[in-house]
Amino acid sequence: MRSAAPGRHMAGLAIAALAVASGLAGCSSSDEPGDSTGAGAQASGSQAAGGGTYTIWDPYPQHDKSSDWVKLLETCGTQAGVTVERTAYDTTDLTNKTLLAAQQGNAPDVLIVDNPVVSTLAEAGVLTSTEENKLDTSTIAPNLLAAGQSGGKTYGVPIGANTLALYYNKGVLKKAGVDIGSVKDWASLTAALEKVKAAGKKGITFSAIGTEEGSFQFLPWFWGSGAQLTKLDSPEGVSAVALWTDWLKKGYAPNSVINNTQTTSWQEFAGGDFAFAENGTWQLANAEKAGFEYGIIPVPSKDGGTAPAPTGGEFVSIPVQQDTARYAVSQKLVACLTSTDNSLSTTTTLSYIAPTEEVQAKQVEQNAGLKVWVDAVKAAKGRTSDDLGTKYPKISEPMWNAVQAALSGSKSPQQAMADAQTAAASATQ
Hints:
five-stranded mixed beta sheet
């Protein structure tokens, strides 16, 4: 539950926040150093009651002061009659600095944060709920909004979403005699991989690294089996690990997946020898540069249909302020950033799928190739959904450890997931 004043209950939840922030996947924040516009500024310098400057913190250091993103922030400030002071941090640093600022009573007026962190900050008493700040979420897709909910309350508005799907190399599949239309479930996908290997090419690459990236990439298969995160060792959950393990044993996927990040996995696919790669919306620009014809299909569920993939992307939230009179302007800033009029340009700039059906339709109208991503986002779900909240990272780590153990051969899929369930149950008591 959110406390009435900033800083209360913070100490006990800071470690959880750091755990969530340590390996977030599927967000747009760049790993490369960038221009943190206004990075030297202290929030306390602009928090005076009735001041004309409002602070916005975001995880987009790759977008400097000349970018369309920063220009939009400044425009929203002008429309609200205030000056916007923007500071950009990488995702992990942003979470840590937000916690520290909240403890000191100097939180920014508007915070844009990776969606798995929202429940942690909310439970730590850092964020106001939409019930308090009056943000309108009526047009937001419920499955996307769920990533920012905790304890029955909503703590922000998604600025956009990305997720995972399967890229495929048309030339490799043609050589192997595979009709992509036949790939509809796990059995038909595995059959396609068998044909590709027989034709002398490579099957599928993905990221199974022992971090949140590994969990992020495993979740479509885990959820696509019908499994739930509260029961890792269910027969369904074990079948998902067994699928990946069998692919490695049969040579349909390379052993490198154990250490692959989503970036190195993409680099393998871009080499031109792989038939499939599991990766995200953020690779579209790189796909265009790959030098071969490609296509995209949703990750298939075990028995057919689109598997629920995890959502990446950020929420725009309003942190708790000692001076509650500031909320009215903060609400105007958030409403501007997430409005239908601005959402199309914002999601295009950040390589996201919009959180509303109206803007999603406009995206597909402009680029028909985005339809598969819109469909994937519609089927996606937040990692902290199902009211898991701060329990999610305590489940995710045992899960990625189980996948690592099974793929390396140190444990059977059944034993790996049984051990993971024991660890997760103990951690979430």
